[in-house]
Amino acid sequence: xxxxxxxxxxxxxxxxxxxxxxxxxxxxxxxxxxxxxxxxxxxxxxxxxxxxxxxxxxxxxxxxxxxxxxxxxxxxxxxxxxxxxxxxxxxxxxxxxxxxxxxxxxxxxxxxxxxxxxxxxxxxxxxxxxxxxxxxxxxxxxxxxxxxxxxxxxxxxxxxxxxxxxxxxxxxxxxxxxxxxxxxxxxxxxxxxxxxxxxxxxxxxxxxxxxxxxxxxxxxxxxxxxxxxxxxxxxxxxxxxxxxxxxxxxxxxxxxxxxxxxxxxxxxxxxxxxxxxxxxxxxxxxxxxxxxxxxxxxxxxxxxxxxxxxxxxxxxxxxxxxxxxxxxxxxxxxxxxxxxxxxxxxxxxxxxxxxxxxxxxxxxxxxxxxxxxxxxxxxxxxxxxxxxxxxxxxxxxxxx
Length: 400
Prior knowledge:
Elements: E1 3-8, H1 12-27, E2 33-39, E3 43-45, E4 59-61, H2 63-69, E5 72-82, E6 87-92, E7 97-101, E8 104-107, E9 111-113, H3 121-124, E10 125-126, H4 131-143, H5 151-154, E11 155-159, H6 163-180, E12 187-192, H7 206-216, E13 218-222, E14 226-230, E15 233-236, E16 241-243, E17 246-249, E18 253-255, E19 272-273, E20 286-288, E21 293-294, H8 308-327, E22 340-344, E23 350-354, E24 359-364, H9 365-378, H10 386-391
Parallel strand pairs: 1-2, 1-8, 2-5, 8-20, 10-17, 11-12, 11-17, 12-13, 19-21
Antiparallel strand pairs: 3-4, 5-6, 6-7, 9-18, 14-15, 15-16, 22-23, 23-24
């Protein structure tokens, strides 16, 4: 009887899970295991680039790749997971509900931006979390040129000074001048609750961020947060008001809500705790990868973060190990001791660091060249050629 491996999600973790599973099955000459990927679209959305302009182009079609490698694609949005009955209910493209059974499941449904109950946030804020929201922001920015020249039109507030907030903010001066004119008096203000710039990224990377922001004119409001927003401005928690027609929210990400349906330990971000083979703790048939998984990357106490750097390797291991589980071969231990950071800093350049302590290795134009290669080449899916695509899914390949 054929066995079934089901993967939820077509992001970095889901895509590489599918390819890695097919690779292992090919190696062992097994055609009795079906690999199905369930997702709303057969495309890899290049989420790390959504802070850039032309966001509509930042997607890579996957149907030809799936056809070449033997992965079955089912278009639909996963709604619920019945772990005991080993079944996933989903809504298909026509809006009807259907179900898929499985023998092993890989949850790679990603994460989403968390929006708290700040007054006016739902009605007036923008974000770069999903391609539709990033496209909405781009449309809004372009439409600013039709508004009367004023401080509020020319000012953008970015809520959150983490990785996404910094990349978004440092990209904005050039984007705004391209839209409003090179002589426009644009302002970009980052509101950050911590007392230091780039606090979550550490001391090693901070000097580059400070220099880039000084040169680009990006301002910081430290030790505060957004308390309210309306169409014409932002109010901070100290009562200060910033006149602005544009607030971009980048604060806080949470794992897919599907993780809450699993009776297993989760961290504060909603990620499922997995063992060294990426099997969800206490579950015999369920694996997690990417932003839904809290996985130890080494023996030093470091854990995966929500990034494509970890999602790709997690996917390669989860797919390999779920397929290995079904055909009775030894799994691979997930290990990803090398950690790097490549932070885009707009027209100023970028900064590249290595290690969890973020030791600076490249800065400025040299780091920008590397960042461009990462964003436009390295994280894209392989070509739709079976042998090469499956070879690229080897979990032994280092990502960083």
